[in-house]
What we know:
The protein is an all-alpha fold and 185 residues long.
Amino acid sequence: MNDFLYAFASLLKKLHDFIARKSNHMDDKVLHFLVLGFTGLLIFALTYPMFKRFDEKNDSKAMAVVYTISTTVILTISMAFVLDVSEELVFVPFIFGFIIFPFSYKVFKMLDKKEQSFRMTNYFTTTMIICFAIAIEVCQGRTKTGNMEVADALFGIAGYIVFYLIMYGIISIFKFVFRHKNHEA
Length: 185
């Protein structure tokens, strides 16, 4: 497992260096802002259809399962880096998954009203971005491929929030324009 994680960290470092070179050596915080902002929108775009389908079927359990599995996998990877655990102990985050499932099920059940798939997707994406931001910083610190800074993680999370607000604003404008256009016709 450690070999895989270090190979993945090396790949991320190469991607980071490539983007930094192509962008005239952009500041690391700005890089985190842009990359995590774009990644958040990509996650949102890829998961929205799934949550929309779950919403149409009124399936809170499926939403909770997807959320729990995703969070557990990211925690497993992060824990392997932070604690440098042996492969025998990597199952520990899965115990967390069993603990978090009832909580996430209750949250999704509470949010589970018709036409709430947008909110559910936002909840999922925000959680993933926070996990990714922390995992990236832990990866940098553990592999000595960069400085582990809380500010980088916060800039990445802020990037997602800004990109999300821009996307939400554009969607709201389109809905407003088309709603008024349909009422006039």
